[in-house]
Amino acid sequence: MDKDRLRDKFRGALLGVAIGDSLGAGLEGYYTISEPIPNELSPQYTDDTAMTIGVAESLIRCKCLNPDDICTQFIKNYEREPWRGYALGPPRIFQMIKNGYKCSDELDKLLFPGGSYGNGSAMRSTPIGLYYFSCPPETIREKAYICSAITHSHSLAKEGSALIAYSVSLAVRDEINLLEKLFDFAQLEEYKKKIILIEQLIIEKHDRYKISRALGNGVEAHNSVSSAIYSFIACNTFEESVKYAVSLGGDTDTIGAMCGGIAGAKYGMSGIPSKWVKTVENKEYLIYLADKLLESCLSNPETVNSLVS
Question: Would you place residue 30 in the very low, low, confident or very high pLDDT band (cuts 50, 70, 90)?
Answer without folding.
Answer: low
